[in-house]
Amino acid sequence: MVRYIWIVLAIAGSVLACSAPVQARCPFEEVVGCDAAGFLLDDSSKRRLSQEEQDLISETDGGDDSPGAGERRLNRLRLMRNEIYARHGYIFQDRKLQAYFDLKTWYRRVSRDVKLSDIEQYNVDALKRIEALK
């Protein structure tokens, strides 16, 4: 996502202002990439994750045993779980999570107090269980 920064220069008593594009850096780019419009779990607000999907999420590592692979898997799970809150406009205390969701075109900050549906709460709890196993 390209954001603009205003640059103000004072030269010999005159003030000049212009804007210049600044590329915002995605804090989890190495984990999931940074598709500004996309979701990690497209319909996590509409249906419960099946046991098969939970097993697949739990086992998915792409055979990656490189340094930091475990941390990347945990971060991906964390993003999946927090994406459910972000859909409701949850304002994150964690600056890295907030920066990640701020880059999403669908995300709008609303509140730190959001209400999840029963389906969403089920999915959050399922993802927490998977995270605890890692």
Number of strands: 2
If classified by CATH, what would the architecture be? Up-down Bundle
> Roughly what fraction of the amino acids lie in strands?
5-15%
At CATH level 3, the topology is Methane Monooxygenase Hydroxylase, Chain G, domain 1
The rough form would be described as globular
Distance between the termini: 32 Å
Read across the widest sheet, the strand sequence of neighbours is 1-2
Query: How many structurally independent domains?
Result: 1
Task: Give structural notes.
With 134 residues, this protein is of the alpha+beta class. It has a single domain (27-133), classed as Methane Monooxygenase Hydroxylase, Chain G, domain 1, CATH 1.20.58. It has 5 helices and 2 strands. Mean pLDDT is 79; it is low at 1-11 and 15-23.
SSE inventory with pairings:
Blueprint: E1 2-11, E2 14-23, H1 29-32, H2 51-59, H3 69-86, H4 95-102, H5 118-133
Antiparallel strand pairs: 1-2
Helix pairs in contact: 3-5
Brief write-up:
The protein is 41% helix and 15% strand. It is α+β, with helices and mostly antiparallel strands and 134 residues long.
Question: Characteristics of this structure?
Answer:
134 residues; alpha+beta; Methane Monooxygenase Hydroxylase, Chain G, domain 1; two-stranded antiparallel ribbon; 5 helices; 41% helix; disordered N terminus
